[in-house]
Amino acid sequence: MQLLRFLLISLILTLGIAAPARAITLLRDPDIEYALRELATPILRAAGLSANRVDILVIDDPNLNAFVVDADSMFIHSGLILRMKTPAMLQSVIAHEAAHIANGHLMRRPINARNARTAAGLGVALAIAAGAAAGNGEFAAGAAAGLQGAAMRSFFSHTRAEENAADQSGMRFMKGADVDLNGSVEVMDIFRGQEALSVTRQDAYARTHPLSRDRYRLVRQLAGAQGAAPAPDPQATYWFARAKGKLSAFQRSPKWTLTRAGESGFQDVKLMRQAVAYHRQADLRRALAAIDGAVALRPKDPYLHELRGQILMESRQIKPAVAAYARATNLAPNNPLILGSYGRALLADGQLAKAQQFLDKSRARDGRDARVMRDLAVTYAKQGNNGMASVLTAERYAMVGRLKDAKIHAKRATDLLPRGSAAWQRAQDVLSAAQDAEKRR
Question: What fold does the segment set 2-224 form as a domain?
């Protein structure tokens, strides 16, 4: 599991103001993201959305919240995932957010940046996320969008009409996907009473998704009208256990995890959770025994091989880690997070040309991974290509909001790279953004 911290680059690039000290942390884990996609796919299809297009990213925050900022990116707080007790509950959250996309509720949000699949677009999304986490989502989102006054105040929060429409559409999507509608009722039960609290005491979800007795009655009515609840989908049950199990294993104490490792009833999930707990206790022997047991049950599961690679890599067992990541890459040759981890292990092993190959491939598939940009810069520098190393470093610093450092490396890159080349132009873009921000201060 990778923890990637992003400062609010969008606020800097679009407005030229100083970035807040608080950073957003994305939890990038290929296993968890795949599990969430498995849970989301039937919902998104029922909503008429592309399951391959909508990314679901996890924010490391104990608050309960989920939101969308464009048609391609959905963000869920880790605290909300851990609070869900059933797959239907988590799928109801996904369905509700998918409804905001499908119903066009984002059209009134003129975000002044590119798609959130890009680094700059992700900055906008995380600017909004940081505001929500800090209890000031209206300001952060409004600033990122370049809005003023009343428009700023209303930017982030959905209206009551939108919430009612999203409830109805989301539950229709759940029904179309054969998901128990009672999941929506159970989620709503968590937030009952939030309206009676002051804004500062409300959960982030309640601040951005207005609650009311009418909404609660409507959700209960729709759930009651479904008749007999559909039987739980075994696949959804498994991937829910997998996502929540791995997330909790990294976020809870090892002792807590070990006492609850088998609660899902899936032996491979139990072993995976034990492997994470033992690894966090620096017990390599037990960690490897547990993950090898899980691999034996699912030998073609790339995400278990990826976790084995992480355990070995973080235990400084470089060559075995390379072998584990190679196996994961063979099983999932297009997963950018696995490709990036494999490239990182090859870099540590001194296989520079091969490391560059896989890191380049990872970056081409997902340009939002700051660790890949860092590793690529190191790889180029060790091969004597200081120009490429500088432009990658400039872009990484720009993406995390360190524009002064980005400017230094961008200047260096423009001096080293062939004038007019694609890489030189990338350095010019960073340099221009940094200079524009300086002028606005």
Answer: Zincin-like (3.30.2010)
